[in-house]
Amino acid sequence: MPFRFFDLPSELRSKILGDCLIIDPCTIDLDPFNYRTASSRLNIFLVSRRFHEEAYRVFYSGHTFRIFQTHGRFLGKTDQPLLARLPTRYRSAITFLELRLGPGWSDPPKPWFVSDRLGLEECTRVRTLKVFIEVDPSSAAFKGFRLNRVFFTNFSRHLLHDVIERLPSLDTVEFDAYSSVDRDGALVTRLSKEARECEKKIKWGSETEWGNSLADKLELARLRARQRQATSNNQ
């Protein structure tokens, strides 16, 4: 007797589909090895139309999708980014996007620009944009190798601004980096300022110890105090 999957409660069905579909690590990029990690799992989409409708929402909401490809095979090539290859209904199910900065810092890849092809306006469920910084070429260690101190900072700032402007439901920008990247350096400072100017909340990721600094704790305390004051004024 066949198992009646759709007789299960929706929460349990989502849990089962998550166990089948969610990949660790859960950031998906345009990568030649996707067929090994993701392709076989997506065969579940082919079971039936109803199965597909539930499964694709679990898969696309359960992963972070990288906006611009960083794998060496595709970096700098004119290949369409992964996001641009997805149909509208898949993009509308995505909840997290990642902008990874660092690859090609001396000569940014030509396909790294924001346009209609990415379909960012269709990513209506994205509330958090993750920005991961691999290197900061404005630091002294890059002197003699970079074009100038502000080139990559300006490029990254414009790219972040353009991405933020096109995401209709974006609420938070989460910054993270390798431990070698200085939070008080020119790149991180300029990017966090850009996010604030776009009126987005700032969150610090888990890769570094940024979120545990005294300054962060004081900033959080001030924010909570303002929230309590606003609540008191509205009563």
Topology, pairings included?
Layout: H1 10-21, E1 27-28, H2 34-39, H3 49-61, E2 64-66, H4 82-85, H5 88-91, E3 96-101, E4 128-133, H6 151-166, E5 172-177, H7 186-197, E6 201-204, H8 214-234
Parallel strand pairs: 1-2, 2-3, 3-4, 4-5, 5-6
Helix pairs in contact: 1-3, 6-7
Short description:
By secondary structure, the protein is α/β, with parallel strands linked by helices.
Radius of gyration, in angstroms, nearest whole number: 20 Å
Shape descriptor reads globular
Q: In terms of structural class, how would the helical and strand content be classed?
A: alpha/beta
Taken as a percent bin, the fraction of beta residues is 5-15%
Distance between the termini: 60 Å
Q: Detail the poorly predicted runs.
A: none
Characterise this structure.
There is one protein chain. The mean pLDDT is about 85. Helix 1 (about 10-20) crosses helix 3 and helix 6 (about 150-165) packs parallel to helix 7 (about 185-195). The protein has helices at about 10-20, 35-40, 50-60, 80-85, 90, 150-165, 185-195, 215-235, and strands at about 25-30, 65, 95-100, 130-135, 170-175, 200-205. Strand 5 (about 170-175), helix 7 and strand 6 form a beta-alpha-beta unit. The chain is globular and about 70 Å long. It has eight helices and six strands; from the N terminus they run H-E-H-H-E-H-H-E-E-H-E-H-E-H. It has a six-stranded parallel beta sheet with strand order 1-2-3-4-5-6, with helices on one face. About 35% of the residues lie in helices and about 10% in strands. The protein has about 240 residues and is an alpha/beta fold.
